[in-house]
């Protein structure tokens, strides 16, 4: 069994590192932390110039035909750096759905614009009354000739303030079982009737509440069949949960390794000689290895023609919970100094532990909470019946 990603992946990883060293500047980092927005247009344009918005896509669609193992190395580097990739991530995720399920016209209209970096597409699934149970969406779409009229509200529409379109789950038939009355659309966000309100999360990250009041969408912007939105969502959620995992944890451990080499306790003893400190770092290193291997397993499933559904859920569950454990452990280790936040000049390692602790709680929630991932693993992985 070969656990390496291969020479091509190693070369691509080095190219990604060199790019990040140049394009992920201290200014970009600072803007990201100040605004809480994990999208940066300069960084986005630099990615476009490299042809790196979707390097894993086939060449005929504007990609570079990179294989899943190369893509894994690439994503691991971007995650480890903490680069602002949410905008590109959701845009390419939805574009991938269009590549698989969109009409020819939709492919021709949206895919080149997405790859040229001209549009950002965000995700409009969650609502105030439906998150985990995403199929309970109430936002209504009612047909009016060649158009649909949308009314409702979405919660956590991250990057909507930067976005051009929301990939939106709507209710088109309230009289059938909930999974059978849903339809997905690409809804233009810059139009009358759309209102965007900022929401701040615990880590300072900005997301949004979005409101839709008599918003008109041409039928040509419908993705998939009328009332067939659940099939489209199944593909979308699988894309959202698969791929590299654990970048935040790797970065946090690197910060803690740097700290331990020069830190001393109150009696002047080097912290690197403290067995408790070493045990905490060792435990984190082992967990990071597991996260990384789970990401590689998903990539392998993809590489061999499968869809990494259960594998993606396992990786997402394990890596986000490992980050929760590790960041709590490191905040505990650092004591009062551990809760000094980013931006405080006296914060240890730039406030890395405090930031990771706050960020981790969101990571266990978005893309499906830990409980939901466990249910998916039990049902689809172990073949157990659906929970009531
Ligand atoms: C920072 C951030 C960014 C996000 N970005 C987006 C985005 O861009 N677009 C988007 O559409 N959504 C986004 N989300 C929403 C995210 O996907 C939802 O928060 C998530 O699916 C959980 O839904 P909820 O918040 O309504 O919680 P709920 O579903 O109300 O869950 C509350 C609690 O109940 C538990 N629970 C619920 N159902 C079950 C069950 N069947 N079994 C066991 N336990 C259960 C949950 O695990 C959780 O602990 C984002 C969330 C965050 C935090």
Automatic annotation (TrEMBL):
MF-aspect GO terms: flavin adenine dinucleotide binding; oxidoreductase activity, acting on the CH-CH group of donors
All copies of domain Acyl-CoA oxidase/dehydrogenase middle, residue ranges: 123-207
GO cellular component: plasma membrane
Pfam families in UniProt: Acyl-CoA_dh_1, Acyl-CoA_dh_M, Acyl-CoA_dh_N
Record domain Acyl-CoA dehydrogenase/oxidase N-terminal: where: 9-118
Keywords linked to the UniProt accession: FAD, Flavoprotein, Oxidoreductase
Keyword Oxidoreductase attributed: yes
Cofactor(s) the protein needs: FAD
The Acyl-CoA dehydrogenase/oxidase C-terminal domain, residue ranges: 228-381
InterPro entries hit by this protein: Acyl-CoA_Oxase/DH_mid-dom (IPR006091), Acyl-CoA_Oxase/DH_mid-dom_sf (IPR046373), AcylCo_DH-like_C (IPR036250), AcylCo_DH/oxidase_C (IPR009075), AcylCoA_DH/ox_N (IPR013786), AcylCoA_DH/ox_N_sf (IPR037069), AcylCoA_DH/oxidase_NM_dom_sf (IPR009100), Mycobact_Acyl-CoA_DH (IPR052161)
Family label: Belongs to the acyl-CoA dehydrogenase family.
Record's protein name: Unannotated protein
Organism of this sequence: freshwater metagenome
């Amino acid at each position: 069994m070969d656990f390496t990603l291969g020479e091509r992946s190693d070369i691509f990883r080095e190219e990604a590192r060199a790019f990040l060293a140049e394009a992920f500047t201290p200014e970009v980092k600072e803007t990201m932390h100040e605004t809480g927005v994990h999208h940066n247009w300069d960084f986005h344009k630099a990615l476009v110039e490299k042809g790196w918005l979707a390097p894993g896509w086939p060449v005929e669609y504007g990609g570079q035909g990179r294989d899943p193992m190369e893509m894994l190395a690439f994503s691991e580097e971007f995650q480890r750096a903490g680069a602002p990739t949410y905008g590109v991530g959701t845009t390419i995720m939805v574009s991938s759905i269009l590549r698989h399920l969109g009409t020819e016209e939709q492919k021709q209209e949206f895919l080149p614009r997405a790859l040229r970096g001209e549009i950002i597409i965000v995700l409009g699934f969650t609502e105030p009354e439906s998150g985990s149970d995403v199929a309970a969406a109430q936002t209504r779409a009612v047909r009016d000739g060649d158009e649909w009229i949308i009314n409702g509200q979405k919660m956590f529409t991250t990057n909507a303030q930067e976005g051009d379109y929301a990939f939106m789950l709507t209710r088109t038939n309230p009289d059938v079982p909930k999974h059978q009355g849903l339809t997905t659309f690409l809804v233009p966000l810059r139009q009358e009737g759309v209102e965007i309100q900022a929401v701040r999360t615990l880590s300072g990250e900005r997301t949004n509440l979005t409101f839709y009041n008599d918003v008109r969408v041409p039928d040509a912007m419908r993705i998939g069949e009328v009332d067939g939105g659940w099939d489209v969502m199944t593909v979308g959620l699988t894309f959202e949960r698969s791929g590299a995992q654990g970048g935040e944890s790797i970065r946090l451990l690197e910060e803690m390794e740097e700290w331990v080499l020069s830190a001393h306790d109150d009696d002047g003893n080097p912290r690197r000689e403290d067995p408790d400190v070493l045990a905490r770092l060792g435990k984190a290193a082992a967990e990071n290895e597991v996260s990384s291997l789970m990401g590689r397993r998903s990539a392998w499933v993809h590489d061999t023609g499968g869809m990494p559904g259960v594998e993606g859920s396992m990786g997402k569950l394990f890596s986000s919970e490992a980050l929760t454990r590790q960041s709590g452990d490191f905040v505990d280790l650092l004591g009062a100094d551990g809760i000094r936040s980013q931006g405080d000049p006296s914060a240890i390692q730039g406030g890395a532990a405090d930031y990771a602790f706050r960020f981790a709680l969101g990571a266990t929630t978005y893309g499906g909470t830990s409980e939901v991932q466990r249910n998916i693993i039990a049902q689809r992985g172990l073949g157990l019946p659906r929970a009531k």
